[in-house]
Specification:
With 746 residues, the protein is an alpha/beta fold. The chain is built from 23 helices and 16 strands. The N terminus is likely disordered.
Amino acid sequence: MRLILFRTVFVFIFTFSLIGQNVPVDRKSFLGFTNEGTAAQKLLESRFDAQLNATEMLAWLKRLSARPHHLGSPYNKQNADFIASQFKSWGYDTKLEEFHVLFPTPKTRIVEMTAPEKFTLRLNEPELKEDATSGQQVEQLPSYNAYSIDGDVTGPLVYVNYGVPTDYEELEKRGIDVKGKIVIARYGGSWRGIKPKVAAERGAIGCLIYSDPRNDGFYQGDVYPKGAWRNEHGVQRGSVMDMPLYPGDPLTKGVGATKDAKRIATKSAPTLTKIPVLPISYSDALPLLRNLDGAVVPESWKGALPVTYHFGGRAPTVRLKLEFNWDVKPIYNVIARLPGADQPDQWIIRGNHRDAWVNGADDPLSGLVAMMQEAKAIGELRKSGWRPKRTIVYASWDAEEQGLIGSTEWAELHADELRRKAVAYINTDSNGRGFLGMGGSHTLEKFINEVGKDVVDPQTKLTVWERARANQIVNGNATQRREATSRGDLRIGALGSGSDYTPFLQHLGIASLNIGFGGEDGGGSYHSIYDSFDHYTRFGDPGLAYGIALAKICGRATLRLANAEVLPFEFTNFADTVSGYANEVIGLADSMREDTKSANQVISNGMLKAVQDPTETFIVPKAKDPVPYLNFAPLQNAIARLNEGAKKYQFSKAASISAARRAELDRILYGSERLLTRSEGLPRRDWFRHQIYAPGFYTGYGVKTLPGIREAIEQRDWKEAREQIEIAARTIERFIEQIDRASEMY
């Protein structure tokens, strides 16, 4: 705690010493507003702020997290009805939209060590007297990974570190094969679904995933209930659906999972795992790791348990048996609309999911109650006579945890209408205390930076933007520090996957933002029975001060998008960002070329030693084919044009054009993101259509930018890399034509 407080004070003081270095920003008017419109908007936002009430949010949080509310559970439906009733009382046109989706729940979970000693894992999180809801065992989902297949497998255990492709390369160098074996991986390094995916590709027959205390436990701080971190019995549940192929219901790819939708057979669903997989606690993992044989792992593979970490490969022998109920369950999205007065067919969509693995006070309810509070405040503005220019749509999504199912099914069902009408999607998920985090479409980067400069941080009394900037200066890398002191806007992160923006941005091409606070709320309640009201109000955001800050950020963003005289899209930041992505993929090809030369030389030297000294065993990896010349000129030329075109569009002039032309300009502006998609999608995963941002095929949540090019290079598919360079260039050219159309409007 002292370290955190010291850093906070240091960042606070250091920021003030740098205020004079800020790049000047014209603060006379908001993006998309005239000076007169800005004055009216400021008054509106002041009235909005006055409505926000943390005490009410705490009451909602306690009520919504009072019982487990996973997909298909009675309390999840009760929560949906409660939320819908609240929106109706605030003046929104509200309804529940129902879908029917595949949801497996466990009926058999057995993990036992059969040799060199017999031991059965407990697979249970115990009740704590300090946590009022932890004993609700009848309603709790047991710890498991959804969309693991059934299986009963026995084999030697191999420790594979994080279980990502580079870890298997390390195993290969050491002559360790996982074929026919069960692997144990620690959480971290990638999204959990990548671990069984890669293990199956390498021939493993089963996968266990545990939370090592080095990453999530006593190594980080005091464990729950004394502190926030995961205790020895805590388990991280979660989906292992192969979402990099497509999210949503596994049986209805590309179409809304209505009751009468056409479904494929469960056994044919490509997003189910190929091997059984189960998460376990670090207390259950300890006897397994203690009995591993083989060589000692390298330093970067070592966790914090009191054992020497070995690779294994012969001992111990483990049995993993899993059976599931493969049911189709109803889910319910709450959809609430506030019609626009001037442009009702332009929609600003704001969403946060509702379902949880267990009680879910942090994930997702900390974000949901902030969204509800902002929606109520906007409803109060409406009751006083104000109306937004554009329609505002609020959504409480169901079944996010299993694979972004509620939002994906809604987006797929309404795809045609959303392509015509959706201006932007603003997403939140869980929220904590600390620093503002912003990710999303870079056409909205300047806009969301401007919003952040108008909200005060509850801890430091700086703006949340200033505090985030100070954090980059103190804790960022060299590039982040340099840009934080020289650039007018903080860079927002590119979005991969992991929350409900995915179907909007990466499937439909709707400009999206993902916003939340964190960095000083570390702890191990994630996806466990201890993600509770007690845990969150002690360690997450006591008093919900940052819940109010989140409501202010997202409420302002929603209101400004809904009220702007011209939509606040801006293209120079996007052009600058995509230029950086292009330099990265060019640099990737160059670095791989040099690395390949060096690696092949090492292999050659190893083969020579093997010949000279046949008494010694050498593991000689297969030589890699050289990296050929790749012609990036089409991409570089397109980006040069993009930078030129982006400078021509001046949003300050756009706000002053006639009202009749503004609606047409708006459609051009929000249609620009659509042109970054391609109906054919990405190679081997046509559901993902965005050509600038996508979740990585082997990272899951982690983003890959210019994904077609980047992943072709990473997979050493040179023919595909050349094709994807051309595709990316043509995509950017189409986008430039849209910017030029916007510039011609004034």
